Amino acid sequence: MPIVNPMPPFDPDSDVGANIGPKWKIWMEDFEMYITANGIADKAKKRALLLYLAGARVREIFRQIPDNGDDKDYDKAVEKLNEYFEPQKHRLYEVYKFREARQVVSKTLGQYYTRLRSLSTRCEFADPDFEIMVQIVLCGRSSLLRKQVLRDPKMTLKDLLVLGRQCERSRQQAAEIEENTRNNQTGMNDDSVVDAALNIPAGKTSQKVICRNCGSEWSHNTVICPAKGKGCRKSSKLNHLARLRRSAPAVARGQRQDRGRWQGRHENKPIRPLNVLDNDNESSDSDNYCYSVNNTT
Fold this sequence. Notes:
The protein has 297 residues and is mainly alpha-helical. It has helices at residues 21-37, 43-54, 56-63, 74-85, 91-100, 109-120, 128-139, 143-151, 157-188, 191-197, 253-266, and strands spanning 207-209, 292-294.
């Protein structure tokens, strides 16, 4: 009874025009591990299992190969299939594909290295580690790693991979810290947080607005304002009371001089800001007839 799940079949038509020899080699290596794990040693069983697991398309190809051996000749079957799937290698094209391999944003350095290692097996490099290291320096995404390698001419591929993983890990950790810091700062700017720090009840403010017509706190409805329709006893204008007279009264010359002396004594005192609030357009001959009182407590 097999103890390992069956292998996927080999598809020789998955990459038309490409050299499928390396893919077949990898599939055969997996098959050898499969039969070893299942404890299969009989040649006839190995041959039958090879052709069965390889799939219908491989069996069709195998039947067209002359002198493919008898039903018990496992080695002959492997030899003939290897000859079919591993024709003369296009080394120049394989090197071209290796040189064109670049690290994309979604791949880590480890994943990029694995891809380069796989591509290098088809290029027959004299020093694969050096070629892979050069490719990472030229086409990798990390500028910091590139500078570090150029700074240390004795760095090996192993050192480069260790340093690259450290850079990726530190960059991820720094990004997490910075994101948390930004979130905390944004939260501290919320009005609710500020009000809570100042012990201001929700819905309350420190500013009280006064009605421009009657002088009461601005909480009544404009339709029932006490000054609605009433005339000022001093100016005879409608819709406001005398205590909130909008026209400035005449001032005697002596009073203006006294006011000038008063302003001189108090010119350095801060002036409270006035908030303009106007909801009645029936009678308005000045833009400065609305004001508010700010509570300092």
